[in-house]
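Hi Y.,

Following your request, here is the sequence exactly as I used it, all 507 residues.
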Amino acid sequence: MTAPMSNINPAFAANARDFSPEWPDADLRLLRTDLPPPPVLPLDDVFSPGWSAWMRGAAASKGAPADYVMAALLSVCASLVGHTRWPSPWAGWAEPPVVWSVIIGLPSAGKSPAMDAVLVPLKRVERELREAAQSALTDWRAKAEVAKLAESAWKEAVKAAIKSCDEPPARPASANPGAEPTMPRLAVSDATVEKLAVIMAGQPRGTLMARDELAGWLGNMSRYSGGSDRPFWLEAYGGRSFSVERMGRDPVYIDRLTVGVLGGIQPDRLRSLLMKSDDDGLLARFLPVWPNPAPVKRPDALHDDSFLDTALRRLLSLAMPTDEAGHMRPWFVPFDDAARDLLDMFRQSVRAWEADAEGLLLSFIGKLPGLAVRLSLVLAMMEWAAGEADEPNIITADHFGRAGHLVAEYLLPMARRAYAENAGGKMHRAARALAALIREEGWQSFTARDVRRKQRMHLQDMDAINPALRMLETADLICLTEVPPRSKGGAPKRLYSVNPAVHEVEA
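Below is the corresponding structure, written out as C-alpha cells. Let me know if you'd prefer a different format.
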C-alpha cells in the first residue's frame, strides 16, 4: 500500500513522477525489529513460597502473565517500605527502595487486570486509612475553631495590656490546634508535580504514581512553556532533597524525594518513545516487563486477597525513626560480608555487560548495581510482611543473591527485548529512526531538509542524517535523484524517492 498523494512533499510531487526508479529487492531489516524472546520468570528462585503462590493465583484469576503481577507487586511493596528502610552496602552508599515498573503489551494482554490485582487491595487499605484520618481531621478542625477564638481573645488581651502598660499575657496553649492531619495517599494516578510535592511534604515515607498508560504521562513531561517536569522525576528515583517552585506559589521543600512509578504501555507507543526521547536516563530507570500473553483459559480456583491485604498492612506498620534534631529519616539496613562479596562479583558482571551495550541499554545496565541493592531489601521486607521471616536487620547473601538472580536472568534479558528498537550503533539507530520517520510521515519522496526540520531523536543534525541516508540507500529503501530546477533557475533539488516496500511491510 502506498501513501496518499497528500503525504508526498508538494514541492516535488510533479517532478518526482518522472524520476521514479525501478526498485530492486530491498533489504528490509531496518524496517523490522529482531525481537528477542522473553525470559522465563524465575518465581520460585527469587520469591518466598507464599508470594510465588499468590502471584500465580492472582495472574490466573486475571488472565494475565505472572510477570505483570510481579512487576506491579515490586513497585507497590517498594513504595510502602519507602523511606522507613534503606539498604546500605557500606558507608557512603545507600539506596531508597523505590522501583519503577513498566509493563508492555497489546491492549488485550491483561496489563490493567494484572495491576488491579495489586492496586485494588492497596486502594482498599488506603480507604481505611483515609476514613481514620478523616475522623482525626474532623477533631482537628473543631480544635482549630476553638484556637481561632483563643487567638483572637489573646490578641485583644495583648492590646489591652500594651495600652495600660501592663505585661502582655503569654499566648495560651489553646490557641495552637497542632499540625493539620494529612490524608494518606498510597497511590495517585494523575497529580501535578506541585501536588506530589505537597503530598511528599506531608507523607515523608513516599508514595506511588500508578497509571494504566504511561505514554501520556511521559508525553506531558514538558507541558510547561517555562520548564519541564523531567528534573523532578529524575530526582524522584534517587531520594535526594528537592524543592518545587512555580511562579506565584510558595516553594515546597522535600528532604527525600521518592515516588514509585507503575504503569503500562503498548509496544508501538514504546517504540515511538525510544525513537523520540532524549537519553537523559528517565526511561532507563524503568524495569521493562514484556512477556508473551497468557493462554486464554478460565480460572480453575478462586483467588484470595487476604494474603496481600495482611502483607500490605504489615508494610505500612513500618515507622521512620528520627535523628537527634527530631527530623524523620530512614533506618539504614547494612549488608553482611557475604552479601558485599556477592555485590562485588555482580558489579564485575555489570562492567562486562556494559562493554557489549550501547544507547538506552547501556544506561539501563549502568543502574543495575543500585537496582539489585534496592531489590535485595524489597525481597527481604516482602518475606517479612508475609510472615515467612523475621524483620531483616541486615541484608544477607541470600537476600542479595536472589535479587541479583532476578536482575541477571530476567530483568536484563527483558531490557534487551524491550530496547531492541534502540539497539545497534549510532549510525544504525539513526537509520532506523529515519525509516520510522518516513513511515510515520507517509513520505513517498523527501529531502534531507525535511528530515532535519522534524528534529527527531538521532536525526537532529546533518552529521547524523547523512550517514542514515546512505545506509537506507545501500539497503535500497530510498534512492537519490536530482530534480531539475524550475523555470526560474536555481540549483537542482536533491530528492530521495522512497521504495514502496517501506510502506507495505509490517514493522
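The radius of gyration is 29 Å.

Thanks again,
Q.
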